[in-house]
Write a structure and sequence with these properties.
- The protein is of the alpha/beta class and 377 residues long.
- The chain starts with a helix and ends in a 5-residue tail after the last helix.
- The structure holds iron/sulfur cluster.
- The site of iron/sulfur cluster has 11 residues, from loops.
Length: 377
């Protein structure tokens, strides 16, 4: 079965739109972004529309829409409405529809607008509640504000809220991390993503040589986060993602981890459609001129099989051998048997029924384990 046929069997398409505007620049951030400047917003929305229309997406195949950034809720209500109108044809009942938000920019009128256009999942970037670290990363909210935002969102009937948190700040103690986690848990949201702080080149932290967590602390904190969230009733379903139950797993992100097709629209957005992986330009001037694509490559069957395993092992339930075989019409054993056996012997993988999983204790070795699945030509 070729990849095109395989994809046609699973029209679980995701649609991602990148809104690159931010009102501030966080010290750790390496995402494609620009400072919000009114003169760019309208032309950007025009270009976004042009790109979206050019893709000829069949709306009924869309299962999730995700507005990411940047800071999508940095847009004025008028601009946000223009964007939501543009996306209206792609929404139908059952679509998971997410917007990323910075808490300090949430307003009642914005929530009303989002509710009116069927947005049903809010992903709020908190990162930390600790005032010292908030100052370091240059974010302008606090616990009280986030609590008020969530209460207001609940009043507007948002019942699927996700919070992002980070750990690994300079000299962050275990007690400080536990305090952040306790505050997070007290907010009773449905989903949380817990990221280790990564120091990326070109960011303020990168330039200032902000110290990165050492490996021992990383391992200790990662497992402390896991344990604390599990005790609070969260399911750990992906390396850094936790949900109250499977109804709240991020359907959009599951698309990426299970090799389903996704369309990425906007500055720097990535797509995976009909055997092609492509990335848009990170250059705003080029994007505004309609010069959207930076590169495009055809994925071979070998690469698709590697990616299936590498991304799939991020999920706690692991990869289904049966699904792999149905997906690619090959025997898993013929293709990956030797590699899998070696990793099982090294206790870096284990089998549970027809699933192959990474043991909890080895989750931080995922990169190494994934690289082992790079297949011979
Ligand atoms: S983390 Fe988010 S809000 Fe901060 S600069 Fe990056 S994209 Fe903007």
């Amino acid at each position: 079965m070729n990849i095109k046929k395989r994809i046609s069997l699973s029209p679980n398409n995701a649609l991602y739109l990148h809104l690159p505007f931010c009102r501030l620049m966080c010290s750790y951030c390496a995402y494609p972004k620009v400072l919000l400047h009114d003169k760019f917003v309208r032309p950007y929305l025009e270009a976004l529309k042009q790109e979206l229309v050019s893709l000829n997406i069949k709306p009924s195949t869309i299962k999730s829409i995700y507005l990411g950034g940047g800071t999508p809720n940095a847009l004025s209500d008028d601009d946000l409405k223009t964007l939501l109108m543009m996306l209206k044809p792609y929404y139908h009942y059952g679509v998971e529809y997410t917007i990323e938000m910075n808490p300090e920019l949430v307003t009642t009128s914005q929530l009303e607008l989002l509710q009116r256009f069927h947005i049903n999942r809010l992903s709020i970037g908190v990162q930390t509640f600790n005032e010292k670290y908030l100052q370091e990363i240059k974010r302008h909210h606090n616990y009280r504000l986030v609590k008020t935002v969530i209460k207001t969102a609940r009043d507007h009937h948002f019942n699927n809220i996700s919070l992002d948190l980070m750990y690994g700040f300079k000299n962050q103690s275990e007690a400080e991390l536990l305090e952040d986690l306790a505050k997070l848990i007290s907010l009773k949201v449905e989903h949380v993503s817990l990221y280790p702080l990564m120091i990326e080149p070109g960011t303020v932290f990168g330039i200032n040589k902000y110290p990165e967590m050492d490996e021992t602390t990383f391992y200790r904190y990662y497992h402390l986060v896991r344990k604390t969230l599990k005790q609070a009733g969260f399911h750990h379903y992906e390396v850094v993602n936790f949900a109250k139950d499977s109804r709240f797993y991020s359907r959009h992100n599951l698309t990426y981890w299970t090799l389903q097709p996704y369309y990425g629209v906007g500055l720097g957005a990535a797509s995976y459609v009909k055997e092609k992986r492509s990335n848009n330009t990170h250059n705003l001037t080029k994007y505004l001129k309609g010069d959207f694509k930076e590169y495009e490559t055809l994925e071979t069957k070998k690469e698709a099989m590697e990616n299936y395993v590498i991304f799939g092992l991020r999920l706690r339930k692991g990869i289904s051998i049966k699904a792999f075989e149905a997906f690619f019409s090959v025997s898993f054993n013929d293709i990956c048997g030797t590699i899998a056996e070696k990793l099982i012997e090294q206790k870096l993988l284990y089998r549970r029924g027809q699933y192959l999983r990474v043991p909890v204790k080895q989750l931080l070795l995922l990169d190494y384990i994934g690289r082992e699945f790079i297949l011979d030509d």
